[in-house]
Amino acid sequence: MKIGCIIQARSDSSRLPRKIFKQLGDKSVIEWVVSRIKKSKVIEEVIIATTINDSDNRLEKIASRINVACFRGSENNVLSRYYEAANRHKLDIIIRATGDNPYVDFKIIDRLVRELQETNSDYVTCIDIPIGFGAEVFTYDALRKAYYNAKELYELEHVTPYIYLNSKDEFKIRKVSYGVPKTSIRATLDTESDYMFLLAIFDKLQEDHFSFEDIIRICNKNPWLTFINNNVVQKQKYDNLEMEISAAIEILKIQELDSAVKMLKSLQSGVRPND
């Protein structure tokens, strides 16, 4: 069975444009993602999946320079981008990674692949680890079913929701637990403060073969590090307006915008503030 990692990446990210080209030492963020994934013992091919937009021509050139494949497809239908890339490269097992996680842990990836194979599962992911270290692993058959059946916008944008939201009926799902205590560590790149955190961690690493446990130990010894970006809200899509309003309320609470919280809560209950 051919095992490949597809890294979704594009230049024009909405929150922090061209973030994948920011430097960490002598490599850009996207180069770090590829370098880390290439340390896997099970991955046979690494593919950067980007868009057909001219702005991503630079990304294709980088892929060629660092000797990885580049597939170009739909900007918004990322599910189709994955399916078409997996088809072209004849993958049987797919690892989904993103171009904004330069410290993705190759050891986690290898464990998830083993779990998928040993349990004959369709989809495996990890829980209870900080944002930015993990990945998702799934079979080509599961990806194919998602491609032909997914209809909702969030299913097309995020690749795997159709799989894990339909697990009872169609797919065998496994979730690997590492037993990591809850932490505010955030090792992904969406904002400038995220970049500051990644740089601070980079300055304290002595080699490139580190694991996510090493970064947790660094943060435990230097708790101030997590203050750099602990106020960043993780970007995500919601299935409906009710869920969006609930998320907005939590964000406003962080900023202590009590009047706005009251307004949104009144919308949830169907009662206007002045009623």
Put the structure in a nutshell.
With 275 residues, this protein is α/β, with parallel strands linked by helices. Helices cover 41% and strands 15% of the residues.
Task: Quickly list its features.
275 residues; alpha/beta; Spore Coat Polysaccharide Biosynthesis Protein SpsA, Chain A; seven-stranded mixed β-sheet; two-stranded antiparallel ribbon; 11 helices; 9 strands; 41% helix; disordered C terminus
SSE topology:
Blueprint (H helix, E strand, L loop, with lengths): L2 E6 L14 E2 L2 E2 H9 L7 E7 L5 H9 L3 E5 L4 H11 L4 E6 L7 H14 L3 E5 L8 E4 H10 L3 H6 L2 H4 L8 E5 L14 H13 L7 H10 L19 H14 L3 H12 L6
Parallel strand pairs: 1-4, 1-6, 4-5, 7-9
Antiparallel strand pairs: 2-3, 6-8, 7-8
Helix pairs in contact: 3-5, 10-11
Q: What features would you describe in this structure?
A:
The protein is built from eleven helices and nine strands. The strands form two sheets. The chain has a seven-stranded mixed beta sheet, with helices on both faces. Strands 2-3 form a two-stranded antiparallel ribbon. Residues 271-275 have low confidence and may be disordered. Strand 7 and strand 8 (136-139) form a beta hairpin. With 275 residues, it is an alpha/beta fold.
Q: What is the CATH architecture term of the domain at 3-177?
A: Alpha-Beta Complex
Tell me, what is the CATH class of the domain at 3-177? Alpha Beta
| The CATH fourth-level homologous superfamily of the domain at 3-177 | Spore Coat Polysaccharide Biosynthesis Protein SpsA, Chain A
Q: Report the average pLDDT across residues.
A: 89
Globular, elongated, flat, extended or rod-shaped: what is the shape? globular
**Main sheet characteristics:** 7 strands, mixed
**Spans of 5+ residues with little confidence (pLDDT < 50)?**
271-275
Structural class: alpha/beta
Gyration radius over CA: 19 Å
Helix content: 40-55%
Beta-strand content: 15-25%
What's the CATH topology name of the domain at 3-177? Spore Coat Polysaccharide Biosynthesis Protein SpsA, Chain A
